[in-house]
Every structure is written in C-alpha cells, then in structure tokens.
Design a protein that fits this description.
heterotrimer; A alpha/beta; B alpha/beta; C mainly alpha; A: alpha/beta; 8-stranded mixed sheet; globular; B: alpha/beta; Rossmann fold; ATP-binding (chain A)
Chain lengths: 319, 329, 310
C-alpha cells in the first residue's frame, strides 16, 4: 500500500541567541534528518522527551514550519508552500489537534459556531457541525456552550470535532491527552481510537507518554535530540526494544503494580542541553554501552527485524 | 508519628460569594522513614492539603478546623511565630516548578545557603560550605562551581536537584513532595525519585508524596490516600490498594490506566467530570459518576470506616463498555 | 570590555546625530541678528555681525567648522555677551547637578519604600493612601506645584525663600517640586513590580524555608522587583532634566535650565548647542549606567552568563 504521508530527510534548525555583526547566530537542529511514513488508516506514534523535536516534526508535517531540507509527500504529491491556496486545500485533509484545547478555541463564541466557522472557511456545509459534535460524544445541549463553561476533556472533544468536520485523511495529534486527568484521558483515548475505526483516519500521534503511545499506535518512532533512534511495530516495544535509549525510556515508565518494584531504574544522568547536542551518537554521554566509535560517528537507522529499525552501533553486541 | 493530621478542613473566603472548602475533613498519619502517597486528579485538594500542612496557604485560605501534629507538637497550640519556627525546623517542601521556584537573580549556592542559615543558624561561611556539600549530595556534578551559577543556567532536572538540596538543609523530619517530578522527563523522574528515596532512608524522613500518577504510587509509596473533591475516599497500604481497591473511584482510576502489556482493549473510563469545588453535590461527591450509586449516596456523606468512605464498598466490577454518546449524560 | 566598546561606539554615534540635528534645526529657525540686535539696526551692521559670527558662510561650511571646533573643545562664542559658551554653561552645571541629585534622592527615598509598602498591604487603606498621593504627585504640573509651594511657604508662612540659591534653605522647595513627580512614578512602578514578584513561586520557596517577612522582602523580593524600576529610571533621567528647566524658572534657580530658556529666547546658538550636547551626554551616561545596573541586578542579561551551561 502506498503511504499517505512520506517525509524524507527532514531538517529544521532554529537560531539560538543573538547574531553578531560578523558572526552568524548559533543554530540548533530541532529536527535533524528524520524520515517517516504513515499509511492510510494507520497510527504512527512519535514518542520522545522534551527537546527531542517531536513538536517541530508535527509542525513540519503540516507545513506550519518550513523545513530547511528534506521532502514531504502527502498522498504522493509534494506539500505545497505554506499559505498558498494549494496548501490550504491540502490542509483540509490534514488537521491538527494539540495539547492546549482552550487556547485553540475562541473564548467569545459558542463551540458549535466555531465548528461551523471552520466549515465555512473551507466552503463546506455548516450543517455538518452538529453531526461532528455528536460524533465526538457531546450532547446537542452542549453545542451552545462557550469554552469557559466546559471542562478540559470536553474542550478537547470540541477541537477534535472541528478537525473531523472537514473530513480529513490525517490527524496530527500533538500531546492530545497530556493536559488531562487519567479518568478523562481514558475517555479521549477511547474516542480517538473509535473514530479511527469508524472512519479509517490516519494519525500522527505525538506524545511524551510511552504508555499512551503504546496503547494507541500501530507503529512507534522514538526520537532523541532531533533524530529517530528506533522505529518499528508497537509489539516490538512491548517485548524487546533495541536502542539503549528506548530501553531506558521504557524502564523508566513506572508500572502501576507494587509487585513489580525494584525494577532497574535507568541511571543515565541528566539530558544535555538540546541547543548543544553532543557529536557522534547524540545519546552517547548518557549511554552505558558507549564506546569510542559512538563519540565520533553518528549511527544510521538499520533494520534488525521485520520493519524494526534502530540507530546504534552496538546493538549486535548488547542485545 | 512524624505527622498526624486529624479532620482538617481548609476554607477559602471569597468576596461577595459563599466560602468554599477545597479540603474537607482530611486525616492522615505518617511515620518516620515512611512514604505516604496522596493521590488524586487536578482540583481534588491534594495541593491545598500540602499548603495547609506547610503553612503556605494563600491569603484568603485558612485551616478552619482540625489538628495538625508535627513531630509530637500540636501546631494549633503554638503562636503563629512558634508554629513557623517549628515548621522551619521540622519540615520542607519541594514543588513541581523547580525553575520558577528558584530566585532568578540569586545564585543557586546563595539560595541553598539561605535555607541552611534559616534552619540551622550557621555562620555565612559555614552555610556556604554546607550548601556546596548539599548540592553534591543531591547529585549535582562539580557543586563548587555550580553553586555560583544561576537557575537559568541549569536544566529543569538540575534545578529540581537544587530544590531538593534546599529542602533537606537542616535535616527535616518531613518532606512534602508535591508533584515534584511531574514536569520532568520520565527518564529523569525515575532518578529524582530514587534520590528522594535515598535521602529518606539516610535522613529517616517521612515523605508525603503528592502525585496524580498511580504508576509512581505503586513504585514508591508505602501507603496511599486517594482524594476526590476535597475528601480522602480511600486509605490503604500500597499493596492492598492495588491488589484490592475498594472505592469505586479508586477502581475506576486503576482501570483507566493504559496497560503496558495488554494490547488494544478499550480503556475503562470514568464517565462525567469532577464537580467544581463551589458546586459540590450533596452526599457523596463521586455519586454522579459512580456505577454503584443509590439513593443514600446522593443524600448522605459516607463515613470513613477502616480507611474507606463509601456506602457500597465492594470488589471491582468492570462496568459494561458504554456507547460513545452515552459517555456524557 | 567588548560590551563597553560597543556601547561607547553607539554613544558616540548618538551624540554625533544629536549635534547635527540641533545644529541644523537651530539654523533653520531664523536669523539671530534679528533678535540680538536692536530693530533699527541698519543692513550694513547686520551683515557685519553675520560675518563676525560666521553666519554668512554656506551652511555646510558652518557645520564643518563647528564640528571641527568641537573636536578641539571649542563650543563657540555666546552671541549675547561674547563669552566662551562652554564657560557659561560650565558655571551653571553645579547648581543644576545639586538640584537634580537632591530631587532624585528624594524621589528614591520616598518612592521605593512607599511603593513596597503599598504592594505589601495591597488593597488596604495604606495602599489607597499611597496610590492616591502618587496620582496627585504625578498629575500635578510642576510649575503649579512650585507656585503653590511659594504661596504657602514663602508668602503665607514666610518660612522659606522663594527664589535664588544662596543657602540650603533655598534648595528645599525646588528639590521637592522636582522630586515629588518622580517619587510618584517610582512608587507606582515599585508597587506593581513588587506585586508581581510577591506572587512568584520562588517567594513561596523562601517562605517554606522559614524566612521571615522582612527577610523575604529585602533579600528575596527586592532584587527582582528592582529590575523593572531601574529600567524606568533610565527614561526618567531625561524627563528630570526637562522638568528641571521649568522648576529652575519658577524658583529663579541659576542653573542650566534658566540659561537654556534665555539662550533659546535670544537665539544664542552656541549656548543652546552646548547645553543640548551636555544634556545628550548626561542622558547617554545615565542610560549606560542603567544598563550596567541592570546587568548587575539580573544575571540573565549579564554578559557571558546568559547561556545555559548544561
């Protein structure tokens, strides 16, 4: 099957600090050579900690930020430049839901009017708003409410409804449940999965929460300081992760079972400043297996099992 | 007992409106060297409980009733100045936002040294040396140099280590860790919690560990108190709470967690939302969301019997998966 | 050092722009001989004086000569009394400096503690009284306050002299007139910046270590609250000089302000230019000092300490 979205060699850097008169400002590579693809109806989970570039990646995919290098193909065609008509047409097919639902909504309009407005902007029938709101589990009475009259979980449903009303093929979900309490988080996670089952949507699900990503994703890509260090089917992340960073990340997730105490807490030290990543393998200063080669030579993604890739020089030796 | 809290209620006065009670009748006790987790979702009153214990309540909030006994002394019998003195010698707090919790214009070393002087009355020079020692103790590399740096030069994790150093100055008997690792990356969180556990053993502190993360509770607490809408609804040892949760809310919380191994089952969610603090229902506050609620639940607040506040305790029942639209009724 | 070099370069460029601007604007504003010489002066005498003062040359030539003079410390000759303009201005500097410093000290000594007090007792009667006074002090025009003080303390009570600068008694009213407006502004800025700081999480940290209220305010809050106040202070130095002109006139204080008023009225170009340059230098120096203070107070803007080190 052909990919719905295919990104190759994406790079994006930002300036840090001020430039001098004759000295360019230091730049930091938020995303440094990321390649990924998503098939129709599939969920790709992107997981990583702060500064790993996962949010920049989601902005690049949507065309909200312009990549310095690399190529993005959506449904076989290159992503048009941002703010052109072509881009707007394509953006209908790829929608964004992010963490801050309250910030994504206009506090002065009832939520139904906001969904209708989105439809009108893209020349769709505003009558679809009611349907979209009921699809995300909001009763009709709630459609007339203003954002401040709703809870965080309900607001996130509105944002999802607004995105869905346009009938997209791809939804980019950037930390969609991170701001929510556990009991509400479960409601939204269920909703996201039900919608996918009903409509065959593809998701790019970006989160720092390994447990949630593992629950919703078909495939997972693990990012560390701008690079993908491991990528493979979700099942592989339940049984045996390959990369030392992924292992530490999985080991660090607290298991809600007092019987599993005393598991190996990864002692990998504090993360480096993302604005000044180390050379070679970016994980090497924290890696218990690092050797001289890791300090000098950045590893590339290699396939170790079916569709399961990792970027580490020493996987054969440490497995 | 390092800390025993009996039936404490916190009241917030609001101008021209009725007062609200974010903490209602909370009782807790904590032994030296023990970790008690206070767990609940946002707005349940767990942070307000901590602020009340630490004497850091905001202006309009106050402890309206109940007693606080800190290391054998009832704080209610002391003058405000003596109470502040006792708290400063016996307890310390670490909060979520470490970078914001440190003064941006003072060096890390100055801030830790201030805490040392406040708690122990050391000379300036001795306090500085002690600050460097404490910064080394919490795992800051090159503490001598780092002590001269400022919070904006540190990563979030390093700032949280500095906050812990500041907290353990003067060897407190009680450490309150209020969502102390929530803002940190998961790989760092594990290390910070291990540091706190290590200090607890070494200094014999009691740790009141406030969190929303049940995974952390399972890994780090000896006993647990679950809070909902200002009350403690269930209290038990960690082992028994996870093996045999009795309150429907606790059961719901545990069921809502994504399972690491179980593949793609639906998560069990708790319908509805937490009631706002100024519009609590009569009776049990959880009744509107509870699968077992009956008439008595909506009229009478349940008493706490053997650590459980529920009219209908019982083993876990997995509620039937509701249809999507029904999740909001 | 590099920082200082850049700052100095900028200051120099600013100064040059001021000199140029003032030079051309003053020359566009009319012929000085029309004002300085009696109305019935004949054309020949006028052109004699024009030639004497170099006003008959092309304006570019005048400008280059003037700048060349400046480089050698020559600010030109006062048309009015044929004295060295720089000498005239220099004689007045101590008086204005005395007035300015006293006013500034009054402003700081009154404004900062009152602002802190208002912030600490926010919304109480103390806050309302302090802010009421601040609004009063800020909205009261300078000359009006000066005249009011003269009416009360000189004409009615006969406690203080109304004009001149002979004794310390003479300093009191002008300094208060000039200082109250700034005290009011400083009190307001201190209050709002203090309220901001008091709500910061690090103040809770200070409280949790058991620091008492006085220590929390003085050693934890104040260094933070001072940062925005100091920034404002830089802007206010300029304002202070402006208001000094008015105050000096009201109290007949023989400072630069009064010299400027007469020099402007009589088109005494060399004197006006010299004063303008002096004011510009004062402003630039004040702002450099503020920048320096700012870096000293706030390590986040300190050179070389801005970056995260890990």
């Amino acid at each position: 099957m052909t990919a719905l979205l295919r990104a190759t060699g994406l790079r994006k850097s930002y300036a840090t600090g001020r430039a001098g008169l004759f000295r360019p400002s230091a730049r930091f590579n938020a995303v440094d050579g990321v390649t990924l693809h998503i098939k129709p109806g599939e969920t790709l989970g992107v997981v990583g900690e702060s500064g790993c570039g996962k949010s920049t990646l989601s902005r690049l995919v949507l065309g909200l930020a312009q990549a310095d290098a690399g190529e993005i193909l959506f449904d076989g065609a290159p992503l048009p430049r941002a703010d052109t008509d072509d881009w707007r047409r394509m953006r209908i097919r790829m929608q964004l839901v992010h963490q801050n639902a309250a910030g994504a909504l206009d506090p002065r309009l009832p939520v139904r009017a906001q969904v209708e407005e989105a439809l009108r902007i893209h020349k769709r029938a505003p009558e679809r708003a009611a349907r979209a709101l009921s699809d995300v589990g909001l009763p009709p009475a709630m459609a007339a409410r203003y954002p401040h009259e709703m809870s965080g979980g309900q607001l996130q449903r509105v944002v999802i409804a607004r995105a869905l009303a346009l009938d997209p093929d791809l939804l980019v979900l950037d930390e969609p449940v991170s701001a929510l309490d556990v009991s509400i988080q479960a409601q939204i996670v269920n909703l996201i999965r039900d919608l996918q089952a009903a409509r065959g949507l593809a998701y790019l699900f970006v989160s720092h929460d390994v447990a949630v990503v593992r629950h919703v994703a078909d495939r997972i890509a693990v990012m560390y300081l701008g690079r993908v260090v491991e990528e493979g089917p979700t099942a592989a992340f339940r049984t045996g992760a390959l990369h030392p960073y992924t292992r530490a990340l999985l080991d660090a997730v607290p298991v809600p079972d007092p019987g599993c105490r005393g598991g190996a807490v990864p002692r990998i030290g504090d993360p480096p400043n993302p604005a000044a990543p180390p050379p070679g393998c970016r994980f090497h200063p924290r890696c218990p297996f690092a050797v001289h080669r890791c300090r000098a030579e950045p590893p590339v993604l290699r396939e170790f099992a079916a569709r399961h890739h990792a970027a580490c020089h020493r996987i054969e030796e440490i497995a | 007992m390092v800390l025993s809290v009996n039936d404490v209620t916190v009241t917030i006065d609001r101008p021209r409106r009725t007062a609200v009670h974010p903490v209602r009748g909370v009782s807790l006790s904590l032994k030296a060297g023990e970790t008690l987790a206070l767990v609940g979702e946002s707005g349940c009153g767990k942070s307000m409980t901590c602020l009340a214990l630490a004497g850091l309540l905001p202006n309009r909030a106050a402890i309206a009733s109940g007693t606080l006994v800190l290391d054998g002394t009832d704080l209610g019998t002391l003058s405000p100045r003596d109470a502040r003195d006792l708290r400063r010698r016996k307890m310390a707090s670490v909060f979520q936002d470490a970078t914001g919790g440190l003064n941006p214009v003072r060096s890390i070393g100055w801030q830790v040294a201030q805490a040392v002087r406040m708690r122990g009355g050391a000379t300036r020079h001795a306090a500085q040396q002690e600050a460097v020692r404490l910064l080394g103790r919490v795992g800051l590399p090159d503490p001598e140099r780092r002590a001269r740096e400022f919070p904006h030069q540190f990563s979030g994790g390093m700032n949280q280590r500095a906050m812990i150093a500041l907290a353990i100055a003067g060897n407190p008997k009680l450490l309150i860790a209020d969502e102390a690792t929530t803002a940190l990356d998961v790989t760092l969180q594990a290390q910070i919690l291990e540091l706190i556990a290590d200090l607890r053993r070494a200094l014999g502190m009691g740790v009141l560990f406030v969190t929303h993360d049940l995974g952390l509770v399972a890994q780090h607490a000896d006993s647990v108190a679950v809070m909902y809408a200002g009350r403690i609804v269930e209290r038990a040892s960690t082992d028994s709470l996870f093996a045999n949760p009795r309150h429907p809310y606790t059961q719901g919380l545990l069921a809502a967690l994504p399972d690491a191994m179980g593949a793609s089952a639906r998560l069990a969610s708790i319908d509805g939302t937490v009631p706002p603090i100024d519009a609590l229902p009569a009776g049990c506050a959880f009744a509107p969301r509870c699968v077992r609620a009956s008439a008595i639940c909506t009229s009478t607040v349940p008493d706490t019997v053997r650590g459980l506040a529920c009219h209908h305790p019982g083993p876990r029942v997995r509620p039937a998966v509701p249809a999507m639209q029904k999740e909001y009724s | 050092m590099r920082w200082f070099a850049i700052k100095s370069l900028r200051a120099f460029v600013t100064l040059w722009l001021v000199v140029t601007f003032v030079f051309f604007v003053l020359r566009l504003s009319g012929d000085p001989t029309m004002i300085l010489l009696p109305d019935d002066t004949d054309a020949a005498t006028r052109s004699f004086y024009r030639a004497l003062w170099g006003l008959d040359r092309p304006i570019w030539d005048q400008y280059l000569r003037y700048v060349a003079g400046l480089m050698q410390g020559d600010f030109g000759i006062s048309f009015r009394n044929n004295m060295d303009a720089f000498q005239l201005v220099r004689d007045r500097v101590p008086k204005t400096a005395l007035l300015g410093w006293t006013a500034l000290s009054i402003a700081l000594v009154l404004g900062i503690p009152l602002g802190i007090l208002a912030a600490l007792y926010r919304d109480s009667w103390i806050d309302r009284v302090v802010m009421g006074l601040a609004v009063f002090g800020f909205s009261m025009p300078n000359f009006f306050l000066g005249i009011l003080l003269i009416l009360i303390f000189s004409l009615q009570l006969r406690w203080l002299p109304s004009s001149g600068s002979d004794t310390w008694w003479h300093l009191i009213m002008p300094a208060f007139t000039l200082g109250t407006g700034f005290a009011a502004q400083i009190a307001r800025y201190t209050r709002s910046s203090m309220i901001d700081v008091l709500a910061k999480p690090y103040m809770r940290t200070a409280r949790s270590t058991g620091a008492g209220p006085a220590r929390r305010v003085i050693s934890h809050a104040l260094p933070n609250a001072a940062v925005p106040v100091v920034t404002i202070l830089g802007f206010q130095i300029g304002q202070l000089l402006g208001w000094a002109v008015v105050t000096e006139t009201v109290f007949a204080w023989p400072g630069i302000g009064r010299l400027l008023t007469t020099a402007v009225a009589t088109r005494d170009l060399a004197v006006v230019q010299c004063i303008m340059i002096l004011l510009a230098i004062t402003m630039i120096a004040a702002n450099m000092f503020v920048d320096f203070l700012y870096g000293w107070l706030d390590p986040r803007v300190r050179v070389g300490a801005g970056a995260r080190t890990a």
